[in-house]
Design goal:
- Keywords: Membrane, Metal-binding, Oxidoreductase, Transmembrane, Transmembrane helix, Zinc.
- By secondary structure, the chain is α/β, with parallel strands linked by helices.
- The protein has two domains: 72 residues, no CATH class; 263 residues, Protocatechuate 4,5-dioxygenase, Chain B.
- The strands form three sheets. The protein has a six-stranded mixed β-sheet with strand order 5-2-6-1-11-8, sandwiched between helices.
- α1 crosses α2, α8 packs parallel to α13 and α10 runs antiparallel to α11.
- It binds 2-acetamido-2-deoxy-beta-D-glucopyranose (NAG) (3 copies).
Length: 349
């Protein structure tokens, strides 16, 4: 969509060229479209072009071939990668000495400086809607949700400058509906699964995201394939340089924290499960869904994730990546947690 100012410039230009009657103005907008359609029909490779003599005119040929080239360049535009962030707790944005802190900062810079996304769509562990229905935030302005208990009072004053996008939200609803996924929009603030980690990755002062952010829920179930399919349903957004991020943890056992408090040595399942997940995520995309689903059936899976909410977002990120390979950017196995960070797909050259 042109901005109001651009729209005005084009309108004046149109009026100057074609006069200002509504009919002439609409001709101004439709003529270029007709030219483009003709160029496609008569492109040198089309059978029509070979049978129509005047198209053999070199001038036209060159014109249409440069247009064709332009279309190819556009269609080969790299798709935005997708990510999985291990986001930690509400303390992650305050603990600058934790090893994940500089890692999230550098992934955030990679996204804002190399990808420069048009928008971000985020799926957090902390929003599980219904077993068979997805919810998403379709409001432009929302608050934060302090969905944690027993932390110091200042944690409940955390801020994050988020702007939603009703347009993008409604497109996501369309995509989900086309994929046969029941979904509805609502006004819902960002939870700490998003804002705590994003305050590190996309610090509003040092590395602002500067694009709309739409949060979409998970299913309220533990089905890895349903979440993979959820990611696949929104995969086409990547063609428009929209970055899809799942946020959770690769190992997340809060119950066992009481045994490991103050001791960073990982419990055995933190190592074995995090490693098994890495192998599955990095497997060939043609077998990835199957391998990743099998990880949830491992004997250590229930220890690593007494609830699977923190694991499901990695299936969304992998599904959204479709044929792109996954790569572990970093991990840290600490007590009853693991903090692996993943990217699926390549950065623009
Ligand atoms: C192609 O079209 C241009 C302008 O319309 C004309 O000058 C030129 O002679 C034509 N060339 C051929 C090969 O028909
Ligand atoms: C068309 O392009 C070729 C090179 O790609 C050039 O040699 C030729 O002069 C061009 N013809 C016209 C009519 O512009
Ligand atoms: C920050 O993280 C490190 C590493 O996990 C931990 O040792 C330290 O206690 C944490 N600091 C605070 C204030 O929580």
């Amino acid at each position: 969509m042109p901005t109001a100012r651009e729209g005005e410039v084009w309108r004046c230009y149109g009026a100057a060229m074609f006069g200002s009657s509504p009919l002439r103005q609409s001709a101004f907008y439709t003529l270029p479209l007709i030219v483009v359609i003709l160029a496609i029909i008569f492109s040198p490779s089309s059978p029509l072009a070979r049978s129509v003599p005047f198209v053999n005119n070199l001038t036209l040929k060159n014109f249409s071939s440069s247009l064709t080239k332009a279309f190819h360049t556009l269609s080969k535009m790299p798709k935005a990668p997708t990510y999985f962030f291990s986001h930690g707790g509400p303390d992650v944005q305050y603990n600058t000495t934790h090893p994940v802190y500089p890692v999230l900062q550098s992934i955030g810079k990679e996204i804002t400086q190399k990808i420069k996304p048009k928008a971000v769509v985020v799926f957090s562990a902390h929003w599980q809607a219904e077993p068979n229905e997805i919810h998403l935030n379709n409001a432009e302005k929302t608050d934060l949700i302090y969905d944690f208990y027993g932390f110091p009072p200042e944690y409940y004053k955390a801020t994050y400058p988020n702007t939603g996008s009703p347009e993008l939200a409604s497109r996501i609803l369309d995509l989900l509906s086309k994929a046969g996924i029941k979904a509805r929009g609502m006004k819902r603030g960002l939870d700490h699964g998003v804002f705590s980690g994003f305050n590190v990755a996309f610090n509003p002062e040092t590395n602002p995201l500067n694009c709309p952010l739409v949060q979409v829920s998970l299913f309220n179930n533990e089905d890895p394939n349903a979440h993979y399919k959820l990611g696949q349903a929104v995969s086409s957004l990547r063609d428009e340089n929209i970055v899809i991020i799942g946020t959770g943890m690769t190992v997340h056992n809060l119950r066992d924290m009481r045994f490991t408090w103050g001791d960073p040595r990982p419990l055995p399942y933190s190592v074995s499960f995090d490693n098994a997940l890495k192998e599955a995520v990095e497997s060939d995309p043609s077998v990835r869904q199957e391998k990743m689903a099998a990880v949830t059936k491992r004997p250590d899976a229930r220890q690593a994730h007494p609830w699977m909410d923190h694991l499901m977002p990695v299936y969304v990120a992998a599904g959204a990546a479709s044929e792109e390979k996954g790569k572990q950017l970093w991990t840290f196995q600490e007590g009853s947690f693991a903090w692996a960070q993943y990217r699926f797909g390549e950065l623009p050259a």
